[in-house]
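Continuing the series of single-chain predictions for the mutant panel. This is the parent chain; the variants come on the following pages.
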Amino acid sequence: MTVTPVPRTDADPAPEFVPEAAAPAPAPDTAAAAEHTAAGPATGAEPAAAVEALLLVDLQTAFVAGAEAVPDAARVLDRGRALLARARAAGALVVHLQNDGAPGTVDEPHTPGWELHLPAEPGPRECVIRKSEDDGFDGTPLGALLDGAGVRALALCGVLSEMCVAATARTALARDFRVVLPHDAHATYDIPAAAGISERVPAALSSRAAEWALGDEAEIVPRAADVTFTAPRRGR
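Parent structure:
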């Protein structure tokens, strides 16, 4: 995952951050519901059926802390902590995906930016899987791990929405996993302006487009609080 963060200026409004426990349920959008077609992912305010695994995608210091963090880093970390706590309590499988960037990049292995910002607790139901591609399944044991644990449904959280989160979600869907993606638990950077193409695209719009592009098999839920966990069949 190689990105060039778009510098934010004093004129850019700071993203509003509301801790998960205080986050209000979004108002129903009846117009959007009326226009929804099979081309888009399933959405809804009802809690999703329980999932058996949580994939935390690239929650590494380079992307969620400091001046070059994604704009909504505080929110994503808050939701990630809450999801992680609930997954651990339920005995679900927890996988921290950690990207190995190329030499000289912000997530080059064993540099400060490469470190996981939410510490892992390795054990029978929690592990770290390192990757070098956007797709967390590509060249890693992730698929075998999920299959071996009897996981059939998983939730994702992390960065970047249109890159590693989306690539991992697509492969999970292609492997017939049920995929739940909470809208408030992933984020990305602004897309920089390109002469003759577009003005800068705000990060929130890019994240929403990434959700929509997953199609109607992905379950997009409004809040991380809508995600519930259970232990995988072979972990009970």
